[in-house]
Amino acid sequence: MTSNDMHRRAVLGGAAAVAAGFALAGCGDSGDDDTAPEERKKGQKIELTFWSWVPGIDKPVDLWNRKNPEVQVKVEKVSAVDGEQYAKMHAAIKAGNPPDLGQIEFPVIPSFLLDNGLLDLAPLGAARHKDKFFGWQWQQSVFGKGIYAIPQASGPMGLFVRQDLFERWDVQIPRTWDEYEAAARKIRKKGAWIETFSATNGNRLAGLAWQAGAKWYDTKGDTWIIGIDDEPTRKVADYWEALVKQKLIKTIPDRQNAWYKDLQTGAITAWVGASWGDALLVGNAPGTKGTWRAAPLPQWEKGGKVFANWGGSTTAVFAKGHYPKDALDFAVWLNTDSESIALLIDGGYGFPSAKKGYTTAGLDVDKPFFGGQEYSKIFADAGSHVDTSWQWGPGVDTLYQRLGDGFTEALGTGASFRSVLKKVQGQTLADLKGKGLKVESGA
Fold first, then answer.
1. I need a surface site. Which of 58, 67, 120, 239 has the fewest CB within 10 A?
2. What is the pTM assigned to this prediction?
3. What is the pLDDT of residues 122-156, one digit of tens each?
């Protein structure tokens, strides 16, 4: 057992004590030896590499580079389509040549810990920055006593609607999921569609299950409890399956060319999205400027205020990166400096994880596109009512692939959505057992 394996075991085992529940059945030999991290000498000029897909990330990085001539950061854009960025990162970790920093979403941090891929920032004093961020988002990167990333942004969920078409067709903005189905019927009679069920979008399904009260990952001692096939998720699956079978919604993938065309033409009139969706709509349906509005996510109970998160990402330092102290300084600056946050907001990166350095009104960078609406208030309120007990576990990237394959097959064969959940539940248990983790079914 190498010291790297001991570190991996300590990280994963220690996480269980703080509701992360990693525990390995054994350990192998990675064949790698720990090496002391490099420290920059006074006056030494260095370059750090940063892999990211965040829109407009170049501008805050350029600002950093102007202010920090000795520590230059080079951005390398990676594709965020179907998890390509993570496949590339895992491959780089395995090859021993990862970048210094990377953009990593909350849900997949545990998978990188299984690879020994991320540097524990606690020994570098990262904890002193904790109070600069919203607590539940900071905790997304904390396992045991380790701190493995600096939070950047979250994605509280809401509903984007074509206000002009809703008004023209006398369709009320739905406040409940029952009203959403009624709106779908009315819109379909006009020859358009309210939405699409995107089979490959496991991220959004997770958010909808989260809102319904699901617990996909939980822990009991050092054991992971897996609940992909739990009752709240079945309720969500049943709901969307009914819309599909009644032909009230489309089944094309979202955030791809055909879907963007439907947004531009009005063939699709709404989208269950997240706070970062403003930039996506602006960039891909410019001809619809002024017609969109944001509304709260429909509720399961009338008058309810239960919300969830779609996405959310961090700036992480890779374990085999260079000059980790400088990398940490950059990660904190990028996500807390007011000038940096302003540039990130302008690029459309999401809802800041930092507590300060911006105003809610300042987030409304696309206000004219939304007909003058102060739309960020909708997402700020949603963010304050997110169930913060939700936790992510290992293998989420594989889980999303499993769900995508399962729902795509179900759309083609007519199999029930519940059968997909049952199958993926079993696959996830097998996947995690194969990684040496203790797991049980909670569904």
1. 67
2. 0.87
3. 999 999 999 999 999 999 999 889 999 999 999 99
